[in-house]
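for the record, two folds in this file. i put them one after another cuz i was lazy. first one right below, seq on top, structure tokens after. the second one comes after a little note so u can tell where it starts
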Amino acid sequence: METPEESSGFAPCGRIEACPRPDVDDPFRPRWMDISDSDERRGAHIVDMLGFCGHYIHVNGGGRSGRAPIICALLKHGDAIPQRELMNMFDLKAGSLSEVLTKIERDGLIERTRDPQDRRQLIVRLTPEGHEQATAEQLNRERFRAEALCCLTDAECEQLEDMLARIKQHWKEIEPDMKGDCACKN
């Protein structure tokens, strides 16, 4: 039985038609390039570029809850913080945080000790090597933030910030598995 997408010729990622340039046989060619409708192609291209930017920031920034963000958070909090506070700060479950901390501890960047006032609580503390690495990581993050948008004017940065805020709000409001046409009006 055909799904609505199959019967209408609509693929979840847009209407894909034969490549307009049959001489191009590149398995790494972005699929958005082959969407025939120009509005759909532009939308897919923008989402593709946002995806690249998100992936780049995730990989080069250590993710949202990986090694780099955790050691930088420890550095910002005087090199030590209760594990429960880290869990809340990064919105992680206890087991997930413990798994990440075990790897960081194994690499000699942190140590965990019992809190003398509350033996149930663990204190996560940077080691001297961890402090050094966190300082370098924080400098790299600050340098990236300073240089990341220097290709834009101040006015363009303000426009981008406004547009991204509107996109973020819109994405929070739409269903992830939209069925049917977007209610957007250009």
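(here's the note) second protein begins now
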Amino acid sequence: MSIDPTQDYFTLFGLPRQYALDESVLEAAWHELQSQVHPDRYAHLPDVDKRRSMQWATRVNEGFRTLKKPLARAQYLLELAGVDTALETNTVMSPEFLMEQMEWREAVEEARAAGEVDELEQLHHRLQTHAREVRSDLALQLDEAHDYTAAADTVRRLMFIDKLQQEIDEALLALEE
């Protein structure tokens, strides 16, 4: 195993350090790395080599999970740039965004209470479209403008959107039962 433990996940997978990435290239790199470090390849070696293989397999899997998810990838890029997103302490959001969130949540709650599956599915679709637009903005902020302050704000917004998406998914599941 010749993997450098100081490598960031992008370097580990042979990818450029940017938000926009080709997921098929990431997945192919993950499969290649897994084939190199999988513990089964080292089962016949001493315990120290087995442990090292397990550590590397874990690191490769953690890297893959981080880079595969857009929100986690953005947070990781900000971390690499030395930017603290202050997710737990910075809850300042624009009044427009907060109002939008309240409207979304009210619409979800009304549709859930009325058992309107079609309405929830429409909300789900609209929110997915909105999330794609926000992720597109995030790609511009991170990859082109290198505006990490704006990107940190967008990451916080995207967290709200992801949480709302989960609430819609849960509401749909509850109504299907």
